[in-house]
Each structure stands twice: as structure tokens, then as C-alpha cells.
Amino acid sequence: MKTILDRISKHADAQTERGAVASYIPELASVDPKQFGMSVVMADGQSFSVGDAATRFSIQSVSKVFTLALALGRLGDQLWSRVGREPSGLPFNSILQLEHERGIPRNPFINAGALVVTDAILAGHQPREVLGELLRFVRAAAGDDDIHINKAVAKSETEHGARNLSLAHFMQAQGNFQNPPEMTCGTYFHQCAIEMTCEQLARAGRFLIGATGPSLISQSNVRRINALMLTCGHYDGSGEFAYRVGLPGKSGVGGGILMIVPNKASVAIWSPGLNAQGNSQLGTEAAEKFAEMTGWSVFG
């Protein structure tokens, strides 16, 4: 495994085209795009890392995996009355589909769907309580209490979050929002501002490996979340990722990717430069090479 990671890192270091950092969030716009890290944690706990795997980065939409786990644990199938389970085929922050489908987001990993999930777990709770619960869950999954929210990133997102607020207000107008949009969006901005290293994120993902991983949620929810990661985890690049990689994965505009090899391993990759779909450019290439070199795929 170390040899495989070394080869992938060497390939990444040689690339001159690395994509563009997320400039619409000022705190992310200043991140050095030359960085690349990758960690693999096996089902038995063995870990392998390469590159900038110990550097903290903003996990952004990768956090949606953890909030979805909390929401399914709390609400079960009731959640699906408010959000769908189909790929969107449109950019992660699109409002077009939301209007056409009367305020029901296509899936929980696009922004509108993630806002509904956050709104659902806020019911009867204060933002501070929900964020505390989320951090406790992530820390328990990673076996590491040194995981925190970057307040500067959260502030930056709040100050430039008009589009997410517009999604929330539209869903409120359609009767699919229970809390004030400002409160749900504020909670969402803070959850996206969680900072982790590749090493921490790979360890945190082990609860999704399956029966061989830590048991933090039911096995039926493990299967469901992995299915959604495969079909919806990379926005309008999800089909391409499934075709090229063949493993469940969730990306974030901070440049991170959490990838699950069922019953075998949890993988975290980070490179802040993004492709046109808002997914890590080098991270996607690294995921493809990893699948090729290991022969691991959900499709045999």
C-alpha cells in the first residue's frame, strides 16, 4: 500500500494543471493549490499516508456524509419525504431543479439537499447543540478529539452565503423548511468549516466500511449512505467518478475526497485545486489511479 501511495503522490507532484481553488469563499481562495495528501486506513486500523496528509483543510461538503448519518439515525425514512435520492445532473448550488421540483431537493449531497438535512436535525435544538453533536460524532468516528471548526472559514462562508440563503428561502416558501433560513444556513456554514487532516478524515470514514469497521450507525444506513456517495457524491460529476473509480466517494470544495472501499478501507485525498464540477482535480485522478492499482471496485 505504501508503494502504491508513493507512486500516486509522485504522479500528482508532476502535474502542472491542478485546477482552481474555490475563489468564491475568500478563506479558501488563499490556500496553496500545490498541496497534495492522501491517507488509507484499513479495516483492521492499519494506516498509510503520503504527502500533505497531516495538513488541516476545510472538509466543506464532505461534512454532509456525517450530518446525513445523524439525520438517518434520528429520523429514519421520514427524512426522504423532504429530500430525494437521485443524482441531480446539475451544479451543486443550482436552483433550477429545485424550482421545477417544488422545493424538494434531488439528493442530500447537493447544497439544497444538505440544507434540508441540517434543517431536519436542528428541529427542537439550538445550532450550538447540533454542531456539538456533529463534532462529537466526527471525533468518535476518527478516534481523535483534536477536530474543530475553523471560525474564520465559517465567517467567510456566512458573509458570502447569499446563494445558499436563497435556496433556503425558496424551500421555506415551498413549505420544506422548519427553521429560520438564517439559523439553518448559519449551522450549515459552520459544519462545512470543520477542519481535518487526511489522516483524521480517513480514520473518521471507517464507520462506513461495513461490518468490518466501527459500528456507529446501523449496517442498513451504512449501505444507504455508500449508495448515495456512489451516485450523488460528486455533484454533476458523479457518473464520471463512478465510471472512472467505481467506489463510493464524497467531495468538498475544500479539495477533499472521502472514499470508501466496502469491507476493506477508508481513503481520504486532498488537493485544493478544483475541476469544473467543483471536485478536486488531482484528487479525482489519484482516486482513479488508486482503484486501478489496487483493483478495488464495487463492480468486481
Mean pLDDT: 96
The CATH topology name of the largest domain reads Beta-lactamase
The CATH homologous superfamily of the largest domain is called DD-peptidase/beta-lactamase superfamily
In the CATH hierarchy, the architecture of the largest domain is 3-Layer(aba) Sandwich
Taken in chain order, the helices and strands follow as HHEEEHHHHEHHHEHHHEEEH
Based on CA atoms alone, the radius of gyration comes out at: 18 Å
Descriptive notes:
With 300 residues, this protein is α+β, with helices and mostly antiparallel strands. The protein has two domains: 2-60 and 195-294, 3-Layer(aba) Sandwich (Beta-lactamase), CATH 3.40.710.10; 61-194, DD-peptidase/beta-lactamase superfamily (Beta-lactamase), CATH 3.40.710. It contains 13 helices and eight strands. It has helices spanning 2-13, 26-29, 63-75, 96-100, 111-122, 127-142, 151-159, 162-173, 181-192, 198-204, 219-232, 238-244, 281-294, and strands spanning 37-42, 47-51, 57-58, 148-149, 194-196, 249-251, 256-261, 265-270. The strands form two sheets. It has a five-stranded antiparallel β-sheet, sandwiched between helices. A three-stranded antiparallel β-sheet has the order 3-5-4. A hairpin with a 3-residue loop joins strand 7 (256-261) and strand 8. The chain is globular, with a radius of gyration of 18 Å. The mean pLDDT is 96. Belongs to the glutaminase family. It catalyses: L-glutamine + H2O = L-glutamate + NH4(+). This is Glutaminase. Substrate binds at residues 61, 111, 157, 164, 188, 235, 253.
